[in-house]
Amino acid sequence: MTQDKINRINELARKSKQAPLSADELAEQKSLRDEYRADFKKSLTGQLENITILEPDGKKIKVKDLKKD
Predict the structure, then answer these.
(1) Considering the entire predicted model, what is its pTM?
(2) Among 2, 6, 29, 30, which residue's Cβ finds the most Cβ atoms within 10 Å?
């Protein structure tokens, strides 16, 4: 997500506190927030998949290998 889009999210949030947003602005805000959430989730998932757990016996296990059955 570009900084311009993040700035637009913040601009719409500030505007909504002062006056109601139009239908077009609400739709734009929802779209931008959904895109932001998807990017955040993708980034967080990538970080978590690279975490390694060190067991007491010295064995290393990657979190991505701990998938639930």
Answers:
(1) 0.72
(2) 29
| DSSP string covering the chain | --HHHHHHHHHHHHHHHHSPPPHHHHHHHHHHHHHHHHHHHHHHHHHHHT-EEE-TTS-EEEGGG----
- Between CA 69 and CA 66 the distance in angstroms is 9
Full set of structural domains in the chain with CATH:
3-65 (1.10.287)
